Amino acid sequence: MSQKIRAIKGMEDLFATKPVQVWQSIEAQARSLFERAGFQEIRTPIVEETALFERGVGETTEIVEKEMYTFKDRNDKSLSLRPEGTASVVRAFIEHFTDHQIQEGRFYYMGPMFRYENPQKGRYRQFHQIGVECFGQDHPGLDAEIIFLLDQLLRSLHLNQFELKINSLGSSECRQNYLSALKEYFTEHRSQLAEEDLQRLERNPLRILDSKEPQSQEVIGQAPDLSDYLSSENQSHFLAVQNFLKNLGVPFQVDSRMVRGLDYYEKTVFEFISTDLGAQSAIAGGGRYNRLVKSLGGPVVPAIGFALGMERLVSLLSADRLNLKSLTKIFFAALDEESEKYFSALLPQTRQLSAVTQVDWGSSSLKSKMKRAARWGAEWVVLSGESEQQKGVLILRDMKASTQEEIAREQLLDVLKRISE
RNA sequence: GUGGGUGUAGCUCAGGUGGUUAGAGCGCCAGGUUGUGGCCCUGGAGGCCGUGGGUUCAAGUCCCAUCACUCACCCCA
After folding, report:
1. Nearest nt to the A404 alpha carbon by C1'
2. Distance, first Cα to last Cα, chain A
3. A301-321 pLDDT per residue, tens
4. Which CATH number do you get for residue A53?
5. Which of A116, A152, A92 is nearest to A306 (CA)?
6. Is the ipTM of this complex over 0.90?
7. A190-209 confidence digits (pLDDT tens)
8. Residue A55 CB partners (closer than 8 Å, separation 6+)
9. Do A414 and A289 share a structural domain?
10. Of A9, A99, A352, A357, which sees the most CB atoms within 10 A?
């Protein structure tokens, strides 16, 4: 036997009926909500020039430094599979929309993203995101509207057990000031920090704030607070966001230690987390990125967006709460060739029914046909063999009740229509 | 990249301190029941015990390596 080819590590086939239905219903719900909020779908390529992500996501981020699927094409150009959605949407926005007088746009997307990481619960190399990007305004009301949209989506899916954390990172100047203050503070107290965190001190002091090292907690607790370094304009923006959220009835917690891993965020950032998701607690996250459009070569256009992790969300949703509707299953069992031809000729009409219909081709025994019907989950079996042929009738079996009746051929479609409602 | 756990039948898993022909449940196939699924009974197929090497008279079992899966760190959705 030749070597079995398997799916790539961290990439999954999704095929079982129930999970697929859950995905479909999430996607449908998202579309419906987003469209009503004035967003239009955008589908960008999965592959982009590597430089887009380097400049967009940030060259020193974890994602770009060691998690990208990067390769050369036949022309020796460096390409990468997208590790996230925002950079591509911004690129497309600059390419197609910024020549208008009004530089605005509301977009949503859904699709696979790729990061070369070691897989674990809630983390994959190919994973799927649903995201939203909104260009053109820097208003706290919009920040709240975007958060509300995401909150609404999660609630409409009957997701329980999640909470919203928000924070403001301030503008880049505020952040610079804060960063140096933070660095100074941790350097002073370096003896009390854990080994791990000493390394972070060099690379990215912000990360020490959400360190889980027990040893460091005390120092972290007394570290300078980002909120003290926000400019008054940023402070009032953040307060306004909170007030708008209250108006909208969206519960939230301010977490002044929350920092996010992508470089482009500033001002409002937020994260939806779940307590019963294992170590990967973030279901969705996002924030404002007012300078990204410009730094990718576009005009100055403020923007805000979020991304939602499909796999994580799906793992939290129980299929029965989504009340997935399933169609009646009708199985056609033909016992001779004449009956096969008859069922075949019937297909154009049976496919009009709001039912799942399946013809069992081939000359296996009735017993094995019945077995197949049961295994498939058929609720009804339409049976035809030689004697039915001669009498011009069919047998309709109710699999659940284990009863059956003879019906005239002419009545079949009416009867099927009735049972599939 | 680092650490832990697990790899035995299609699936879920048993197989003290090495010992002769590797098991169970479920599933699958056939028959009991000639044209009727589930329940029951009988029978059957299906295993290089992840892979490679080593120790031993003897390895599913011990040792080393390697691969895969999985959880966790890091980071993120």
Report:
1. B36
2. 48
3. 999 999 999 999 998 887 666
4. 3.30.930.10
5. A152
6. no
7. 777 777 777 777 777 777 77
8. A295, A296
9. no
10. A357
Contact between A127 and A309 (Cβ < 8 Å)? yes
Percent of chain A topping pLDDT 70: 96
From the Cβ of A253, is strand B under 7 Å away? no
| Tally of domains within chain A | 2
Strands across the sheet containing A126-135: A40-41, A105-114, A126-135, A303-309, A282-288, A266-274, A162-168, A253-254
Would residue A210 count as lying in a domain? no
A288 touches strand B (CB under 7 A): no
Burial of A175 (C-beta count, 10 Å sphere; 0-12/13-18/19+): buried
CA of A6 to C1' of B56 (A): 37
Asked if residue A259 and residue A162 are part of one domain, the reply reads yes
User: pLDDT tens digits, residue range A387-399?
Assistant: 899 999 999 999 9
CA distance A307 to A322: 21
Q: List chain B nucleotides near protein: any atom < 7 Å from a Cβ.
A: 1-3, 28-31, 35-38, 68-77
A335 touches strand B (CB under 7 A): yes
State how far the Cα of A191 lies from the Cα of A420, in Å rounded to an integer: 72
Residue A159 sits at the vertex; the CA angle it makes with A153 and A162, to the nearest 5 degrees, is 100
